Amino acid sequence: MRNIWVYPGTFDPITKGHLNIIDRSAKLVDELIVSVAIDIPKTPLFSLEQRMEMLEHDVAQLNKDNSGKIKIEAFSGLLIDFAKKKKASVIVRGLRAVSDFEYEFQLATTNMSLAREIDTILLPATEGSHFISSSMVKEVARLGGDVTKFVSPFVKSKLSKHFGYS
Questions:
Q1: Which of 44, 88, 104, 163 qualifies as a FRET site for 141, CA 20 to 30 Å off?
Q2: Catalytic residue numbers?
Q3: Could you tell me the fold of the domain covering 4-129?
Q4: 54-76: per-residue pLDDT in tens?
């Protein structure tokens, strides 16, 4: 039986922190499905198509390094239903700070009550990425700051274009 994990998110935009979790997770599985949420309570800065394009671009090299194990798919509805449909055994989530733990713990226990056969693994962010969030990146970019340390050059160019500067 294949070991399949799902790594969900809005990826609005994808950050170096996300890439770190993707790379580390891919090393542990037969297949990692990076799942992009369609149904999100907040209005994303980028469209689903733009988020998928940035993910596909930024994950391309990681996928080569991980023998093509990484798939990118959009999903709608409950994550746990998507994970079941994909025959995933694990949902992986990243933890940036202790403050993330309570929310992630609630999600994990809710998902466990809906599908006991699917576990949640919480991967702590690495020292260099624990403070990076998509919200913070968008705010820095909106105000004209340099986001080079937080996102790839490709994503930086998309942010620059969106906010109208070079």
A1: 104
A2: 18, 42, 96, 134
A3: Rossmann fold (3.40.50)
A4: 999 999 999 988 889 999 999 99
The two tokens of residue 15 are: 């950050």
Question: How many whole angstroms separate alpha carbon 67 and alpha carbon 27?
Answer: 10
Domain boundary assignment for the chain: 4-129
CB 118 within 8 Å of CB 90: yes
Measured between alpha carbons, how far is 91 from 50 in angstroms, rounded to an integer? Answer: 24
Whose CA is closest to 12, among 49, 62, 64?
49
d(CA 143, CA 138): 9
Burial category of 146 from C-beta neighbours within 10 Å (exposed 0-12, middle 13-18, buried 19 and up): exposed
